[in-house]
Amino acid sequence: MLKMKLHIRLAEKRLTQKELAQITGIRLATISGYCNDNFKMISKEHLEILCKFFKCKISDLLEYEED
């Protein structure tokens, strides 16, 4: 199972989901889904935007855990 670590990045930057949505242009509902691990797919474009914004690698945003 893929797990998104976006909530950790938000906490490190002391940003809210709403602020991140406004800055990146990603819908708030989408960011909320990523933070709550309630997503079926992740847009490549969103990964690029988030990696660029947080200056990180994809592995800093996503991790794989076996069920």
User: Compute the gyration radius: what is it?
Assistant: 11 Å
CATH topology name, in short, is: 434 Repressor (Amino-terminal Domain)
Task: Count the beta strands.
Answer: 2
Helix content: 40-55%
Strand neighbour order, sheet with most strands = 1-2
Low-confidence stretches at least 5 residues in length (pLDDT < 50)?
none
CATH superfamily: lambda repressor-like DNA-binding domains
**The CATH class:** Mainly Alpha
Shape: globular
Largest sheet: 2 strands, antiparallel
User: What would the average pLDDT be, to the nearest integer?
Assistant: 95
CATH architectural arrangement: Orthogonal Bundle
Number of helices: 4
Q: What oligomeric state do these chains adopt?
A: single chain
H/E series: EHHHHE
- How much of the sequence is in beta strands? 5-15%
Pfam families: HTH_26
Organism: Clostridium beijerinckii
Domain HTH cro/C1-type: 12-61
InterPro entries: Cro/C1-type_HTH, Lambda_DNA-bd_dom_sf
Task: Give structural notes.
The chain is mainly alpha-helical. It has helices spanning 6-13, 17-24, 28-35, 44-54; strands at 2-4, 62-64. A two-stranded antiparallel sheet has the order 1-2. Helix 2 packs across helix 3.
Summarize the structure.
The chain has 67 residues and is mainly alpha-helical. The protein has 4 helices and 2 strands; from the N terminus they run βααααβ.
In terms of topology, how is this protein built?
Layout: E1 2-4, H1 6-13, H2 17-24, H3 28-35, H4 44-54, E2 62-64
Antiparallel strand pairs: 1-2
Helix pairs in contact: 2-3
